[in-house]
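user: can you give me the structure for this one chain? C-alpha coordinates are fine.
assistant: on it. calling the predictor now.
[tool input]
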Amino acid sequence: EPSCCWPKLRPGLHYEDCFPRWSGTVQWRGKEQCEADIDQYEVAYGVDFDWVLWTRPDVRWEFPIGDIRSFPSDRVHTTKTTYTELSDIFALVPRRYMPI
Protein backbone atom coordinates (compact mmCIF):
# COMPACT_ATOMS: atom_id res chain seq x y z
CA GLU A 1 0.00 0.00 0.00
CA PRO A 2 1.34 3.42 -0.83
CA SER A 3 1.93 5.72 2.12
CA CYS A 4 0.09 8.53 0.41
CA CYS A 5 -2.89 9.15 -1.77
CA TRP A 6 -5.03 6.15 -0.79
CA PRO A 7 -7.94 6.57 1.63
CA LYS A 8 -7.60 4.94 5.05
CA LEU A 9 -9.45 1.66 5.44
CA ARG A 10 -11.31 0.45 8.50
CA PRO A 11 -9.18 -1.38 11.07
CA GLY A 12 -8.36 -4.92 9.98
CA LEU A 13 -8.79 -4.22 6.26
CA HIS A 14 -5.88 -4.02 3.81
CA TYR A 15 -5.75 -3.02 0.17
CA GLU A 16 -4.06 -6.29 -0.80
CA ASP A 17 -7.24 -8.04 0.36
CA CYS A 18 -9.24 -5.99 -2.16
CA PHE A 19 -6.85 -6.29 -5.09
CA PRO A 20 -5.35 -9.80 -5.13
CA ARG A 21 -2.43 -10.69 -7.37
CA TRP A 22 -4.75 -12.44 -9.78
CA SER A 23 -8.07 -11.32 -11.17
CA GLY A 24 -10.10 -13.79 -9.15
CA THR A 25 -9.97 -17.02 -7.22
CA VAL A 26 -11.41 -19.07 -10.09
CA GLN A 27 -8.75 -17.77 -12.47
CA TRP A 28 -6.08 -18.36 -9.84
CA ARG A 29 -7.25 -21.97 -9.45
CA GLY A 30 -7.24 -22.39 -13.24
CA LYS A 31 -3.61 -21.27 -13.41
CA GLU A 32 -2.69 -23.70 -10.61
CA GLN A 33 -4.39 -26.54 -12.50
CA CYS A 34 -2.66 -25.48 -15.72
CA GLU A 35 0.71 -25.64 -14.00
CA ALA A 36 -0.07 -29.08 -12.53
CA ASP A 37 -1.13 -30.37 -15.97
CA ILE A 38 2.04 -29.01 -17.56
CA ASP A 39 4.21 -30.60 -14.85
CA GLN A 40 2.46 -33.95 -15.34
CA TYR A 41 2.82 -33.81 -19.13
CA GLU A 42 6.51 -32.88 -18.97
CA VAL A 43 7.24 -35.81 -16.65
CA ALA A 44 5.10 -38.30 -18.59
CA TYR A 45 6.64 -37.47 -21.97
CA GLY A 46 10.14 -36.38 -20.94
CA VAL A 47 9.82 -32.92 -22.47
CA ASP A 48 10.20 -29.37 -21.22
CA PHE A 49 8.10 -26.47 -22.44
CA ASP A 50 9.76 -23.11 -23.03
CA TRP A 51 6.54 -21.07 -23.02
CA VAL A 52 3.03 -21.16 -21.56
CA LEU A 53 0.16 -19.27 -23.19
CA TRP A 54 -2.64 -18.21 -20.86
CA THR A 55 -5.93 -17.27 -22.45
CA ARG A 56 -9.51 -17.03 -21.33
CA PRO A 57 -11.84 -19.71 -22.68
CA ASP A 58 -14.04 -17.06 -24.29
CA VAL A 59 -11.20 -15.60 -26.38
CA ARG A 60 -11.23 -16.31 -30.09
CA TRP A 61 -7.97 -15.97 -31.98
CA GLU A 62 -8.25 -14.29 -35.36
CA PHE A 63 -4.55 -14.27 -36.25
CA PRO A 64 -1.23 -15.81 -35.11
CA ILE A 65 0.80 -14.10 -32.38
CA GLY A 66 3.91 -14.17 -34.56
CA ASP A 67 7.26 -15.90 -34.37
CA ILE A 68 7.64 -16.95 -30.74
CA ARG A 69 11.41 -16.67 -31.09
CA SER A 70 11.04 -12.90 -31.41
CA PHE A 71 9.68 -12.56 -27.85
CA PRO A 72 12.36 -11.95 -25.20
CA SER A 73 12.28 -14.96 -22.88
CA ASP A 74 13.06 -12.94 -19.76
CA ARG A 75 9.65 -11.20 -19.73
CA VAL A 76 5.96 -11.96 -19.38
CA HIS A 77 4.13 -10.64 -22.44
CA THR A 78 0.57 -9.49 -21.87
CA THR A 79 -1.95 -6.83 -22.77
CA LYS A 80 -2.29 -3.65 -20.75
CA THR A 81 -5.31 -3.35 -18.52
CA THR A 82 -6.21 -0.58 -16.14
CA TYR A 83 -7.61 -2.66 -13.31
CA THR A 84 -5.27 -5.61 -12.78
CA GLU A 85 -1.57 -6.24 -12.67
CA LEU A 86 -1.77 -9.15 -15.10
CA SER A 87 -4.28 -9.38 -17.92
CA ASP A 88 -6.81 -12.16 -17.65
CA ILE A 89 -7.23 -12.16 -21.44
CA PHE A 90 -3.77 -13.10 -22.69
CA ALA A 91 -0.29 -13.76 -21.34
CA LEU A 92 2.71 -15.42 -22.95
CA VAL A 93 4.81 -16.62 -20.02
CA PRO A 94 8.29 -18.16 -20.04
CA ARG A 95 7.92 -21.61 -18.49
CA ARG A 96 10.50 -20.87 -15.81
CA TYR A 97 8.20 -18.14 -14.45
CA MET A 98 5.22 -20.46 -14.31
CA PRO A 99 5.53 -21.79 -10.74
CA ILE A 100 2.67 -20.14 -8.97
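assistant: here you go. The longest helix spans residues 25-45. The two ends are 22 Å apart (CA to CA).
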